[in-house]
Amino acid sequence: MFALVDCNNFYASCERVFNPGLLNQPIVVLSNNDGCVISRSDEAKKFIPMGAPAFKFKQDFERFDITVLSSNYPLYGDMSERVMSILTQFTPDVEVYSIDEAFLEFKGFDTLDFEDYGKKIKNRIAKWIGIPTCVGIAPTKALSKVANKIARKFPKETGGVYVIDSEEKRIRALKWLTIEKVWGIGYRLQKRLKEKGCIKAYDFTQLDSNWLRSNFSITEWKLQQDLKGIPVLQLEDTTTKKAIATTRSFESTFSDIIDLKERVATFAMSCAEKLRKQQSCCYMLIVTLSSNRYEKDQERYKASKSVIFSHPTNSSLLITKEALKAVEMIFKKGINYKRAGVIITGLVPNDNYQLNIFENENPKHKSLMNVIDFVNNKYKSDKIKLANQDLERTWKMRQEHLSPKYTTNINQIIKVK
DNA sequence: TCTGGGGTCCTATGCCTT
DNA sequence: TCTGAAGGCATAGGACCC
What we know:
The protein is an alpha+beta fold. It has 3 domains: 3-75, 3-Layer(aba) Sandwich (MutS, DNA mismatch repair protein, domain I), CATH 3.40.1170.60; 88-227, no CATH class; 244-379, Dna Ligase, domain 1. Helix content is 38%, strand content 21%. The chain contains 15 helices and 12 strands. The protein has a 5-stranded mixed β-sheet with strand order 5-6-1-7-8. The longest helix has 21 residues, at 257-277. It is globular, with a radius of gyration of 24 Å. It starts with a strand and ends in a 39-residue tail after the last helix. The model has no long low-confidence stretch (mean pLDDT 89).
């Protein structure tokens, strides 16, 4: 059996833990740069849609007396770790699926009362961390997602815990769930499936699986099997990342390559730093540039370029150098660029990779990187920069409604008078 | 003025080799 | 030497997730 434990309105709930005045109040949490709404308390859901651009809803925030908060990732990350550590007390097989949810697998728990066990999980997280959760339990991962949806939708009837443990319950659940709400069915697939008469998740399970395999991708085939109750999707190891990315939208647009190179150099530095932090090296680098996708009147442009290194590296110097070369290759004149990103992938552990006969990391880089990381760690606010980064300008994220880092900064710890 | 960011997985395409 | 089939690999990009 699998369980899906999902925190309710996670970011909004985290904010409430340390500010009980927000309980039962409508609150929203904004994305980086205070761009759009990414979490809403139940009270706010009536008024504000998910993903609402903050600038368009400013008046509504005031009209409905909604508390607006900037996202506080140090707080959410720390709260998430606490929740996940509790989950490992219930089974050793835990897959942290995202910051606010995890799959659990129960192997050899056959005689367990799952409903009761789910309630224990939920209650312990509520009591020890103060975060409300929903728990869905079923024979496969995809069905545990469905069960979780039912627990969320019918809190009074289910108490936030729902178990699919019979064929009858499975069919009833799938006949209730509309196709677009199924995990893995997004906007595009939903449209295609509806054309075929798939309205409910149940209709999807009734499609001929050979036909599905030849007309859709392997992903949909696996999903169908899982929804039929045949476990195909397994718990995955999420502890080692497969890629690291730093991508940002700019406050305004850039058309000059010098500005773009400066930004990309900074993103590359940030990726390399994250890479060394998890003690890995990378084989490949991808740089992306794009124009403003919301701007109708101007030429749209999206481009990316990947670069393969002759040997795995985590040197900021090498990664930045190659990233800048890539910018030169894909830069097109006359475009107003709104967004750029650096992604590094092909990650291998620091100390265990194939050496190249002809070319290997310059040994001086390693000690230099150690010094840079040490200094940056010590003087967090004023990091060492490369000469091709802008030394004068400071790029500050907009965070006009930020709450304190209650759990990760001793100076911001909650005070009781 | 102001529309997020970090991931995973899959597929299409073109080129090369057998 | 040419040809087509088939598979591997690199690369780009789409779709989806939270």
